[in-house]
Predict the 3D structure of the following.
Amino acid sequence: MRAVVAHRYGPPEEYEIAEVSVPEPGPGQIQVRVAAVSINPLDVRLPAGDLRGAVDLPFPHVPGNDFAGTVSAVGEGVTGYAVGDEIFGFAAPRAIGHMGSSSVSTGALAEYAVFEADTPFLAQRPDALDAEQAAALPTVGLAVRSIMASADIKPEARVLVVGATGGVGTALLPVLASAGAHVVATAHEADADLVRSLGAAEVAGYDDYPGGNDLALNLVLPSDRLERLVAAVRPGGQLLTITFPPPAPHDEVDVRLVLDMEGRFGGMAEVAADAVAGKLQARIAARYEFDDAVRALSDFATRHKTGKLVVRVRSRP
């Protein structure tokens, strides 16, 4: 089968599409014929070596976490899925399993991948969601649910969103607005109309955070570089972040990592329900064919985007 492969630590430009063996499911696992994958920071940060020491990758490494596809084989003891089921979800590389994730895989940027079946981060794909929409949802949906479950949002609370134009940000802004927040979104001037249409009441520059916010949400910055963002939160307020490494505590601001690796705030079934009900939508910024998957990863790492990048995987039988 074909797969995107990183042979060593380095930038996405060094990955290649290569022929590798089809992974076979063991006990408690399912094999999936992948239909679509969306790109996430972990797909480029891990092979770049950004988390080296905390997560040491074995090579060759196949990236890809968020996916949609069809179950093509089931391992011994699997009862929740059958061959032919249309599913979607999130699964981290097996190397990250020691960090507490119950959902790991062989890497979704491939024609076939193997996943642990017993996890809340996989679910049947509703008919109302096509494969590309479903592939764009997992990390976005889990992040939005984690943030909304952890945030203290009172009517007219002032909420500063850093990373508002990314995949999570463009899905989160309407949810915050519906909750009654006064949303301040960071964005380039060219994207100001977009974030306002999604629910932002104000637009701020990336280097000019307004102060006095009740809540700040960090969706993109490394969580060990949040000093300026902490200063933009009033004493007694909150700063929630979804990026590694875990942030340092602060005396006057509640600073927390809310990346949910255990499904405490709901899994993929709940994400699917929110999407079908119209409460959650992932914005797809661009679509790529599988032959251009390396370019998709490079674009993700180097180019500005307003939403998710999705790769269509047209696997061979």
Observations:
- The radius of gyration is 19 Å.
- The domain at 141-257 is CATH 3.40.50.720 (Rossmann fold).
